[in-house]
Write a structure and sequence with these properties.
- The protein is an alpha/beta fold.
- The chain folds into 2 domains: 44-277, Type I PLP-dependent aspartate aminotransferase-like (Major domain) (Aspartate Aminotransferase, domain 2, 3-Layer(aba) Sandwich); 279-373, Alpha-Beta Complex (Aspartate Aminotransferase, domain 1).
- It has helices at residues 8-17, 44-57, 73-85, 97-108, 123-131, 144-156, 179-188, 241-250, 252-255, 262-277, 280-296, 315-327, 357-373; strands at residues 30-31, 90-94, 114-118, 135-139, 162-167, 192-196, 220-225, 235-239, 307-313, 330-331, 334-335, 345-350.
- The strands form 3 sheets. The protein has a 7-stranded mixed sheet, with helices on both faces. A 3-stranded antiparallel sheet has the order 9-12-11.
- The longest helix has 17 residues, at 280-296.
- It is globular, with a radius of gyration of 21 Å.
- The chain binds pyridoxal-5'-phosphate.
- Residues 96-98, 101, 122, 124, 167, 171, 196, 198, 225, 227, 235 line the site of pyridoxal-5'-phosphate.
- The site of pyridoxal-5'-phosphate has 13 residues, from helix 4.
């Protein structure tokens, strides 16, 4: 008798046959895959901030939910600091971007509401929308007319609250949302624009506040994840005060969950200060991204960010090319469906401030060989 569950073995076999099986692989080789765009996860200042917080405050874990004894000085200080940093009324620190997106839509969007979302939006937003009772409108990627038409349809159906959900920098394509137009559209239609800045925070904006920096954000909720360019963990929901107060009262994943460890909140605050102290990092990352695009994917248009997709098509082909690169000492991974659409398996190459031109040239040379061999 099997000690597993009916159907599990067959599904795993199917994934293997279709080259969609995933296994865990430890980091090895030059990092062209992580979201540590600024090199913050290994930055001595962040390490010191985390260690000092543990030593001075004496806590490794928060010990409870934020509404009970799990609310610490470091959380409060981070939220105050981030609200000022991102120039919003209030911020709320959550234990991850996935849970933050899920929380936003399951808490704020109900039966009489509508969520209009870009077809390439992150899985965490999709999960949140699906778990909510709101009406869903899927819109063609970055198609402002399609967004406008979905808003009109939602209004015609009598939607109470209308949310427009986008990423500012798309995680698997590296391209940018037309935020100014979307913001204007939301404003004109009394809709709330929910901007996931996961891959823009720390990297984009005149001072690293994200792609939305400088835009009027009165009709915005933005999400800044802290485990990518900020190098730590968690996510900050930035919103009008009333919305944050409502989440504190109503958001089940916030209320019924242990708070993130306080030393991580301290490290996130340090990371935000570092964004101001070391602006060269984001400038270098974006400069190198353009260089890398010319070397790695000269035939494709530049998506505009530090995420460079190389679309290869079939799952097994993408795996073979990635494998070849890994053998040569480059940590590049293949991304396959369902993370990306059918037939668009790809390498997702991420460029970091601490890469060198030589490393990128070496990757480009190996890539040519890998594609020829795979
Ligand atoms: C666009 C986007 N939003 C949210 C998340 C989730 O963030 P976290 O890794 O902090 O849970 C990710 C990470 O994969 C992401 O790419």
């Amino acid at each position: 008798m099997s000690n597993s569950l009916p159907g599990i073995g067959a599904e795993l076999a199917r994934l293997k046959e279709t080259s969609r099986e995933r296994t865990l692989t430890l980091p090895r080789g030059i990092d062209f895959t992580s979201n540590d765009y600024l090199g913050f996860s290994r930055h001595p200042a962040l390490r010191e901030a985390a260690v000092a917080a543990v030593q001075e405050q004496g806590f490794v874990g928060a010990g409870g939910s934020r509404l009970l004894r799990g609310h610490h000085d470091a959380h409060e200080q981070l939220e105050r600091f981030s609200a000022a940093f991102f120039r919003v009324e209030k911020a709320l620190y959550m234990g991850g971007g996935f849970v933050a997106n899920y929380t936003l839509f399951t808490t704020l969007a109900g039966r009489h509401d509508a969520v209009i979302f870009d077809e390439r939006i992150h899985a965490s937003v999709k999960e949140g929308i699906h778990a909510s009772a709101a009406e869903r409108y899927r819109v063609r990627h970055n198609d402002i007319e399609d967004f406008a038409s979905a808003i009109r349809r939602a209004r015609a159906q009598g939607a109470r609250r209308i949310f427009v959900a986008v990423e500012s920098v798309y995680s698997m394509d590296g391209d940018l949302a037309p935020l100014a137009e979307l913001s204007e559209l939301a404003h004109q239609n009394d809709a709330m624009l929910v901007v996931d800045e996961a891959h823009a925070t720390g990297v984009f904006g005149a001072t690293g506040r994200g792609l939305g920096e400088g835009l009027e954000q009165a009709h915005w909720i933005s999400l800044h994840t802290c485990g990518k360019a900020l190098g730590v963990f968690g996510a900050l929901i930035c919103a009008p005060a009333e919305i944050i107060d409502y989440l504190i009262n109503k958001a089940r994943p916030f209320i019924y969950s242990t708070a993130p460890p306080p030393h991580l909140a301290a490290a996130v605050e340090r990371a935000l200060r570092l964004v101001d102290e070391e602006p060269w990092r984001r400038q270098r990352a974006l400069e190198l991204a353009r260089f890398a695009h010319e070397k790695l994917t000269p035939d494709a248009p530049f998506a505009g960010s530090q995420i460079i997709p190389m679309i290869l098509g079939a799952e097994q082909h993408a795996l073979n090319v990635a494998n070849h690169l890994q053998q040569a000492g480059f940590d590049v991974r293949a991304v396959r469906p369902p993370t990306v659409p059918e037939g668009t398996s790809r390498l997702r190459i991420s460029i970091h401030a601490d890469h060198s031109e030589d490393e990128i040239n070496a990757l480009a040379a190996t890539l040519d060989k890998a594609r020829a061999a795979a």
